Amino acid sequence: MLTQVSPNVYILPFDSDRDRPNLGYVHGDNFSVLIDAGNSKSHLETMLDAIKTAGLPEPKLALITHWHWDHTFGMHAFSGTTITHTTTNGILKELTAWEWTEAAMAERLKSGAECEFCHTHMKIEYEDISEIKVVQADVEFSGDLTLNLGNITIEVTPVENPHSEDGAVIFIPEDKVLFAGDADTGDFYKLDGGYDQNKFYSYIKTAESIPYETYIHGHLAPMTPAEVSVFRKGIESSDL
Ligand SMILES: [Zn+2]
Fold first, then answer.
1. Dihedral of the alpha carbons of 54, 55, 56, 57, in degrees to the nearest 10
2. Do 38 and 50 form a contact (C-beta atoms < 8 A)?
3. Rounded to 5 degrees, what are φ and ψ at 11?
4. Which of 10, 36, 70, 129 could disulfide-link 25, Cβ–Cβ 3.0 to 4.6 Å?
5. How many domains does the chain have?
6. 183 C-alpha to center of ligand 1: Å?
7. C-alpha of residue 32 to centroid of ligand 1, in Å
8. Where does the Metallo-beta-lactamase domain lie (predicted)?
9. 110 assigned to some structural domain
10. What is the whole-number distance in angstroms between the Cα of residue 151 and the centre of ligand 1?
11. 175 C-alpha to center of ligand 1: Å?
12. Domain for residue 45, yes or no?
């Protein structure tokens, strides 16, 4: 079921057991936008069903925050247009060549191409791993991007961050909601969940220049600016 976080913004809350992140929905007068496509067709369909049940229009666009499987593996099942950063789309292109067999997955885990946390949760999400399908987005952007939904706008800002080599934050100024992807989480691919200090502070500088009132991290409940500050202090004292 959707949770309304502001007049025009909703989320399908995250599910840690299956590593399903929060999926966002921005309701516009002219068209509506999905934020992230989920970790599978099933995750995406759960979101689309929840939107329908809430009596809201089907989203026309899906904006992707970063390339990680839990945010992108539902893209192939989305009938609208998908949009992501050029860097994200480049990484997705590499992933389209990956084979989804037990042997290929084991090999990627061994070589470090795949992270253990992701590998484990893919096996939980997918009963049949051969159903995994990776596609590139239809539209790419390389700088800031603004979408005009009629009554409301979406501002997309690519951002250096400690979590992945790509990544954009998505701000809805009228509602003061910021979708951060997983940007202030550590890097599970290169640093085993650890943090690059410079990237962490560079990210905070960008994020804190945005006047949000609600902060949506991919895998946590929505936070107020005060809660974000406590969350970051926790990272600073234990992970940096
Ligand atoms: Zn991620």
1. 140
2. no
3. -135, 150
4. 10
5. 1
6. 7
7. 24
8. 20-219
9. no
10. 30
11. 24
12. yes
Residue 96 has phi, psi (to 5 degrees) of -65, -20
- Å from CA of 212 to ligand 1 middle: 21
1 CA from centroid of ligand 1 (Å): 23
CATH number of the structural domain spanning residue 150: 3.60.15.10
Residue 178 tokens, joined: 């910021």
Which range of residues forms the domain containing residue 201?
A: 3-92+132-238
- 95 C-alpha to center of ligand 1: Å? 15
Dist. CA 88 → ligand 1 center (Å): 12
10 occurs within a structural domain:
yes
Is residue 212 in some structural domain?
Answer: yes
Give the Å distance between the CA of 113 and the centre of ligand 1: 15
pLDDT tens track of the chain, all 240 residues? 999 999 999 999 999 999 999 999 999 999 999 999 999 999 999 999 999 999 999 999 999 999 999 999 999 999 999 999 999 999 999 999 999 999 999 999 999 999 999 999 999 999 999 999 999 999 999 999 999 999 999 999 999 999 999 999 999 999 999 999 999 999 998 888 899 999 999 999 999 999 999 999 999 999 999 999 999 999 999 888
